[in-house]
Amino acid sequence: MTMQRQIDDDRPLAELRGAVKKYGAVTALAGVDFAVQPGEVVALLGPNGAGKTTAVQLLLGLMRPSGGEVRLFGQDPRATASRVRVGAMLQVSKVPETLKVSEHVHLISSYYPHPLPAGEVMAAAGLLGLENRLFGKLSGGQRQRVLFALALCGDPDLLFLDEPTVGLDVEARRAFWSVIEGKAAEGRSVLLTTHYLEEADALADRIVLISHGRIVAEGTPAEIKARVVGRKIRCRTALTLAEASALPGVRAARREGELTEVFTNDADRAVRELLTRDPALSGLEVEGADLEEAFLALTGADSEEVAA
Amino acid sequence: MSTTTTAPTTMAAIPPSQRNIARILALEARYEFLKLLRMPAYVIPTLAFPLVFYLLFGVALKQGPASTLHFPTYLIATYGAFGVMNAALFGLGVGLAVERGQGWLLFKRATPMPPLAPYLGKLAMCLLFGAIMVGWLFTLGATAGGVRLPLATWLSLAGVQIVGAVPFAAFGLAIGYWAGPNSAPAIINLISLPAAFGSGMWIPIQMMPGVVRKIAPFLPSYHFAQLALKTIGMDDRSQTVGRGVVVLAVFTLVSLAAAWIGWRRDEGKTFG
User: Fold this and answer.
1) Of A101, A242, B39, B199, which one's alpha carbon is 20 to 30 angstroms from that of A190?
2) How many domains does one find in chain A?
3) Residue A218 parent element (H or E)
4) Does a structural domain hold residue B5?
């Protein structure tokens, strides 16, 4: 079945304009402008607590922004007319366990005016053969696929996937990616949140980096990967931070107690440079930078250039 | 019948605002029922406890204390009321607290589900479980208990007992929004067991110490029990039907208000 989706015009399907969200004294989103255009797969990438889930819940009309505007299909996200065109996979810890997979799909499908046939939902989510299994009897990966199936029930134009592979092992994660990439997502617009750069890279046309409630960078996966640092070098050195971060191949540096941490994508070269400038350097360690550190590097001294 | 067979063909043509709400509610209730039916932790206390209590205290002790009250008949009314009350409190209270805690209700809110569907589905399911339990209890009473009542009396007793689920379902809703998934069952037991005892649901109120009889009129469950007992002429004659109905109606409204405040607070904390 070819899916030629009807697109009203070029207006974004989902849009945040200057969106602010505060929980008491905590600011989860500090003024975010962001849109999903028809046909694109966008990844909202950021460390835990960056505001990704808040952005999704605002767009789904599950909460009210403290400031700014939220539009879904050009209207209030709580309108039934918007909700029938959307499918969401949220971070649900458990679905009622004593219902069968097919029963969950049956009920959720009944909410929509034009649901996908149950057989298509099962096939697209890779659940064929598991229709009569109780949810409580499924493995972790199968449970995630049920949540994905429930998002597909209404044949949505826009799919929200909030951390779809969190808690899955590497193998299950890759299997899940191929489900998302397959027939299931074909022609649909997708907004995906993740804290795995690899996942955003595998699935998205466009990556939006978010940190501390702000968008810090935006671009194609190739552009983003080029900007994000992959390695972290820790050492004890007499070099100042300014000297260290000015070395060829080094993107940023910071002080961590007595140690200096240097972020780079070319660890071999950076280590050579460091040792050349400071032969007394000691305690050298090289490790992979986690996403949070990649962001620190991005939002550090050269954030002007990166955010451009 | 003809409406259900033509529904699928017309479904595709109707706009979203005209989805078949009745069908959604029927499915919601059906799956609520199946969900609980497959959960022994709900089914056994709800269906079996009132029956076992009735066998122990109503049937085995029927020639027990010298009294003008026919125990098996009195307890048909009050164990039925107790069973219905518990089915409603646990079905709504624990069900909501758990689904709220898991994020399942939040997911459902993101769908175009009619906003009241989960609550109405749960209420319908509680009424159904209450009716099943009452049916078994009556069968046990009429056979093992030797209870003899006119058909009209059986029916009005069953009617009062089943409809009596509504105020306690409302109270369960409030608990579901104020209690956590792990504490909800304990909270409900702490409330419902003393309330049932103090309302004369296990031992006739007429046989209770004076202090219990003084407190009882402040318990909604006492008024529920008295309304059920009135249908068989065994109430304590201190309350009118009108007063019982008013007390339960006020209790329902206060519970709904508490649930609404809890819902608003939930929105504020999690997504408002």
Assistant:
1) A101
2) 2
3) strand A214-219
4) no
